[in-house]
Design brief:
One of its GO terms (molecular function) is protein transmembrane transporter activity. It comes from Nocardioides marinus. This is Protein translocase subunit SecE. It is found in: Cell membrane; Membrane. This protein is mostly helical. The protein has one domain. Helices cover 66% and strands 0% of the residues. The protein is built from 2 helices and no strands. The protein has helices spanning 16-29, 35-71.
Length: 77
């Protein structure tokens, strides 16, 4: 049979201590943003969310009124 055949090998599990050490080692590699970058990112995200809320609200209002107009409901109530 080829190497693609079903194997009886079980995957090797790491101990919780080894896992924790690996997590800490990976977190040390992370480049953390400065406070100025964090404030800038916060405001960029907030502006994006507010713009998307405005677009979706306008579409919801417009499509709702269109549905009432097409199906004969009264949109003024």
């Amino acid at each position: 049979m080829t190497d693609n055949a079903v194997r009886d090998d079980k995957p090797v599990r790491t101990s919780p201590v080894t896992f924790y050490r690996q997590v800490v080692a990976e977190l040390r590699k992370v480049v953390w943003p400065t406070q100025d970058q964090l404030v800038t990112y916060f405001f960029v995200v907030m502006v994006f969310v507010l713009v998307m809320m405005a677009i979706i609200s306008a579409l919801d209002l417009g499509l709702g009124r269109l549905a009432f107009a097409v199906f004969g409901g009264n949109a003024d109530q």
